[in-house]
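The material for today's practical consists of a large collection of protein records. There is nothing in a record beyond a sequence line and a structure line. As an example, a complete record with its sequence and its structure tokens follows:
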Amino acid sequence: MVSKNKKIMNRDYKEKIVYHMNKLDEALTTANTRNIQKSLDSITYFTNKQLDVVECSLDLDYEMQYQSE
């Protein structure tokens, strides 16, 4: 399980979130509802992936703390 957590922890989705937020801004400017929804879906997806990374990082920190004792 630790190796899976390390693999997930090496990911960073912040750039993708910012990219899709910029796409959302463009879609809002042009009032393109299809692209607004697409951007919102992408932001939600990558935000959840980033939260998984943070959660795994916390899990690893916790595991490492108690393994060292």
Observations:
- Helices lie at 2-9, 14-30, 33-67.
- The chain has a mean pLDDT of 82.
